[in-house]
Amino acid sequence: MPDRFIRDCCKPSCAWSQSNITSPVQTCDINDQPLADGVIAQSGCNGGTSFMCSSQSPWAIDDNLAYGFAAVTASNPTCCTCYNLTFTSTSITGKTMIVQATNTGNDVGNAQFDIAMPGGGFGQFDGCSKEWNATSSAWGNQYGGSDTNTCSTFPAALQSGCDFRWDWMQGQSNPTCEPLIPSSLPPS
């Protein structure tokens, strides 16, 4: 199933107290500062004060392993579950990314992951323009983001997450992958 790169900046679905997890996902205010009342604060995409923190950006361990965060299908939410994605197409075939499900999406298909990545577009909702005081065009195409590396024009807190797409992901957009839940991985 193809993965998409989306970062809507809205309060993640797994940040609500109703998400049936021990520790909901941390949220931040419009200044990217952690909120003490993040579980009850309304999403910035619905007129509230709670947004996705810039720390929910991908990072590389080495040339073949990276970590990040993703949205999964809203029809079967699995808040805070981790998935091992092995990419099966483009120049990143064989690379592995472990993502934690921190969000859900009504437009995310089964076995599809929307990887939270600055510069990957904002998808169904645009909280980024409000959180970072920018126009929606600053984020590139709604789905897929920019076709060229424009990371240097992003807020400083988002630049390394944006650069990840052009460095570790080699500029690829919507690669396919084989997902596995890490707990089902064979022992190393």
How is this fold's topology laid out?
Layout: E1 4-6, E2 27-28, E3 51-52, E4 59-60, E5 65-73, E6 82-87, E7 96-105, E8 114-116, H1 128-131, H2 156-166, E9 177-180
Parallel strand pairs: 1-8, 5-7
Antiparallel strand pairs: 2-3, 4-5, 5-8, 6-7, 6-9
Mean pLDDT: 85
Structural class: mainly beta
Shape: globular
Straight-line N-to-C gap: 25 Å
Number of strands: 9
Approximate strand percentage = 15-25%
What is the number of helices?
A: 2
Poorly predicted runs of 5 or more residues: none
Q: Approximately how much helix is present in the residues?
A: under 10%
| Element pattern in H and E | EEEEEEEEHHE
Radius of gyration: 15 Å
- Largest sheet: number of strands, sense, barrel closure: 7 strands, mixed
Task: Describe this entry's structure for a reader.
By secondary structure, the protein is mainly beta. Helices cover 8% and strands 22% of the residues. It has 2 helices and 9 strands, in the order ββββββββααβ. Strands 1, 4, 5, 6, 7, 8 and 9 form a 7-stranded mixed beta sheet that branches. The radius of gyration is 15 Å and the shape is globular. The chain starts with a strand and ends in an 8-residue tail after the last strand. The model has no long low-confidence stretch (mean pLDDT 85).
Task: Summarize, please.
Helix content is 8%, strand content 22%. It is mainly beta and 188 residues long. The protein is globular, with a radius of gyration of 15 Å.
Q: Characteristics of this structure?
A:
single chain; 188 residues; mainly beta; 7-stranded mixed beta sheet; two-stranded antiparallel sheet; 2 helices
